Amino acid sequence: MRIGIFSDTHSNLEALNAVLGRLREEQLDKLVCLGDTVGYGANPDECCDLVREVTAFTILGNHDAAVSGRMDYSYYYDAARHALDLHATLVSGTNMTWLQSLPYEVREGHMAFCHGSPINLQEFEYIFAPEQAARCCPEYDKLADITFIGHSHLCKAFAFNREEVYEVVTQEFEVRPGLRYVVSVGSVGQPRDHDPRASYILYDTDRRWFEFKRVGYDIESAARKIFDSQLERNFGNRLFLGV
Fold first, then answer.
1. Which ranges of the chain have pLDDT less than 70?
2. Which pLDDT belongs to residue 89?
3. Do 168 and 159 contact (CB within 8 A), yes or no?
């Protein structure tokens, strides 16, 4: 089975359409979203409609949880909190019900899907460096062979055993027996690795073969809608830089 996996659309309709267009060209059996469909961008409701339509399942992200009333986000910085407040008024009743129903984790065979770290799922902890990934070592026996996550907006992969972690520095690789993997799939709508292109991944469950993918999109249009809205202008500026 070939799976397309994406995360952190953050209401960026232009980026989402570019990713879904590219995914349609692949011979895929299903699509999975790892959360944060809303937040930051100008089209939360439209992005929810699309993600709901095309995915086999979607995971709950922290911004989804905030907009749908499932977590306290009072400690978020002002601009992010304002965006979440605004998006809660823009999302349709159907999409709000959908956000309220999303799971923290889904497991299928040798795979697991969640938004942040697979440890303490409801805390949405980041994994963007070996130090964070190392917290998974004591949980080796409880974890899936490969866990796909979002949240950091970075394209990163870590392999680990019960004692140590290795960063996998390559665009594609095979999942090897005897190791566990945590793969951060990057962001569709707000990359933060200095590459402004939208990111997604492909995974072949039979070959256990993984690939990072990128696609360009109309950043100018996505940013212009942010500039013309009540949202913080920096949410648009950062799209050009991939930060």
1. none
2. 98
3. yes
